[in-house]
Amino acid sequence: MKHWRHPALLAVIAILLGSGCTKKFDEINKNPFDFAEDELKADYQLMGEPLSQAQLNLLIYNDPPTAQLQQNLNADIFSGYMMAPTPFEGNINNANYGLLYYWNNAPWRITYANVMKSCNFAQEKSKDTYPDFYAWAQIIKVEAMHRISDIYGPIIYTHYGIINADKSVDYDSQEAAYDAFFQDLDEAIKILTGYAQANATPRFTNFDLVYKGDYTKWVKFANTLRLRLAIRISGINPEKAKAEGEAALQHPLGLLQDPEDNFAVDISPVTHPLNIMCYTWADLRMSAPMESILVGYKDPRLPHYFVHTDGGVNEYHGIRNGINISAKEEYSGFSMLVKFENKIQFMTAAEAWFLKAEAALYGWRGAGVAADNYKNGIRTSFNQYHITNVDDYTNNNTNKPIPYLDPQNAQNNVPAGDPHLSTITIKWEEQASTQQKLERIITQKWIAMFPEGQEAWTEFRRTGYPRLFPVVINNSGGTISTEKFIRRLPMPQIELITNPKAVARAVSTLKGPDTGGTPLWWDLR
Predict the structure, then answer these.
(1) What b-and-e string marks burial along 315-330, b requiring 16 or more CB atoms within 10 Å of the CB?
(2) pTM of this structure
(3) What are the tens digits of pLDDT across the range 408-427?
(4) What are the distances in angstroms from CA 225 to CA 79, 120, 230?
(5) β pairing state of 82-83 and 285-286
């Protein structure tokens, strides 16, 4: 698939990527093309092409080294999904909390340069005459920016493009950003619902790399995203969470329901960046928690996620995070990831069912029955991989995560009885405590969301589930608690240099210093 359809359209990249988020705002709304906007509007390219690029850069699709820094060497590791066998930077790196600022600029830089600018430009050009494009851009923007807020906390969102007299650009606190996310989703959902219910002819089909212009599916995704964010703030602001969650749950077009509804960006013919990281560079392997949980549960999704090692038939080994690694060869023989197709997954329909299960625990209207939603979440995840024996799995009340044994170094073992080793079983138990029910829901959601490490890390921080293994080596200098795990990334160095006054104001909205150990607004653990 060719994502840019006219050579002149390549000029948009230079403008959208050519500056930091606090510089050259006067260029954002200029026509990036060499000919009249009316000509581009005729087939919607003026709005559509930037939004194609926005989708492709939710995780940068064609630059694996940058994608590795954008997500893999932070959230994918912090989530307990994966671990690198490579002792980067003398084995003082993110994996053991020796945070590297030149790595941790990437999520911010890529999202503002390649997504936020694209969405802003498309909205400026579609605002008065193309409401469907405007709403579509709004949804993509929230999808991108809630991820950034869940990494750093404060973000530039409602003040984007507004330069103060002192040349700074103000941040929104995370609470203010979430309020804006809900407002933007509400507006976009209303607009696209009108198009869907009127059976309007789709206008952005040629630029939509997820749903091929299907208005109804975009509304379902936006509803599910709204529910995700509502669940996120259910601890810190239960009244707001309930109102937003119920709005999503009771919407007539519903939520994501089947694997065909999964939100996954088609990047073909480009190879999935995780394939490059794992197979070309040998920088990526299975994590220890994945081994413990999937092997312990005898989970039939295991061979769809990871490749067994040469040590034995159906034998899997994962690497514990934050350990002493002297050479890549020590752990490079551990389980690789199964190669991914040319789609980058950001939300599954299974997640929607698990969100409903948690909403049902809180008694939200429209959520249904927690047990049914839990089972449907597992069933939907199984269907995604064409696995049929779901009832045997959901009725199993004996299998548990197994102790972790590192064949290379026994100091990394997690033995039976360790408080970080979960004892939660699979089968739903109605008589269980609310916390036990929540652990079941989140553990299964964690399995089903693989390999989307950003959301998995975020939900681990919110709930403490699934139970993960703490780092063995902590190179944070005391700024991150080993037992509490990393809570966020510090503000990006590029902002400290280009927007220092605003950064200082933003940091004052945090619960503590600008370190990886300070919890975010919604993080009550």
Answers:
(1) ebbbbbbbbebeeeeb
(2) 0.93
(3) 999 999 999 999 999 999 99
(4) 19, 20, 9
(5) antiparallel
